[in-house]
Amino acid sequence: MTELLVPAMPTTPLERVRWALSDGWVVARRGLIHWVRNPVMVVYQLLWPIMMVMLFGYVFGSAMVVAGGGDYREFLMPGLFGQTVMFGLATTVMVMTTDASQGVTDRFRSMPMSQSGVVLGRSFSDMVNSVLELVILVGCGLAVGWRWHHGFGKALAAMGLLLLLRFALIWVGIYLGLIVTPEAAAAAWAPLFPLTMIANTFVSPSQMPGWLGLLAEWNPLSATVGACRELFGNPGWPGESWAAQHAVELAIAWPVVIVAIFLPLSVRRYRRLDR
């Protein structure tokens, strides 16, 4: 008979971290391989940013006025970067619910592998997908006339803030994906549209009604988009509120708070499945 070799369980904190990272990379590779082998999904994810640039930059953009003045397409692109990052949450939810409904999650839980490494691997693969989407969106922006004006270093810092928000939203998506049904996950896009619209993505909160503008200013997405406009040197009236004047600080603080809440919730929920 073939003897099943079970690896020794880690006993020290360093061994546990190494074990989680190793298993996380295995799960991440699986996610990336599935993504590449699904050409319909690849084409959809890559065409979506291009379509949004064309739609908002040329169709709606002709009727838009930037508060404080400036070219609307330069105002628009950081908002589209942020919207694309936010929409990635729905993708995470759908993938997690699909794995759970098809028994993949149960299979992982039955194997001698780090349970935190499974959700960590999901975050790795989603981050790689997000980087590719942002690269394509940046290329679209450059093609339609968008530019950064404060140097390459600050442009990289802005991209880092976008990816920081995406990393935080991945943990929200993992947690939701572990508690909702596939049918509910299919509708995950619906609440994201108002969340990305009630922000400074397409218009300044100062152009909204007072109560709505207040909600938009404190939207975590607004902090990231406002910070990106500041770092890119793109037009955009920041407003006089504390949130608008401290966009960079909030663009760091909001994701840290979200990760601190949802990362342990996600790991705990994964460990407690079917209990």
Describe this structure in words.
By secondary structure, this protein is an all-alpha fold. It has one domain. It has 12 helices and no strands. Helix 3 runs antiparallel to helix 8 and helix 5 crosses helix 6. 40% of the residues are buried. Pfam families: ABC2_membrane.
- Spans of at least 5 consecutive residues whose pLDDT stays below 50 are none
Amino-to-carboxy terminus distance: 34 Å
Give the overall shape. Answer: elongated
How many helices does DSSP assign?
Answer: 12
Give average pLDDT, whole number.
82
Element pattern in H and E: HHHHHHHHHHHH
Number of structurally distinct domains: 1
Strand fraction equals under 5%
Give the % helix: over 70%
Question: Structural class of the secondary elements?
Answer: mainly alpha
Radius of gyration: 20 Å
Number of strand elements: 0
Q: Main sheet, how many strands, which sense, barrel? A: none
Question: Secondary-structure map with pairings?
Answer:
Elements: H1 13-36, H2 39-60, H3 72-101, H4 104-110, H5 115-143, H6 152-177, H7 182-186, H8 189-197, H9 210-217, H10 220-232, H11 242-245, H12 247-271
Helix pairs in contact: 1-5, 2-3, 2-5, 3-5, 3-6, 3-8, 3-10, 5-6, 6-10, 6-12, 10-12
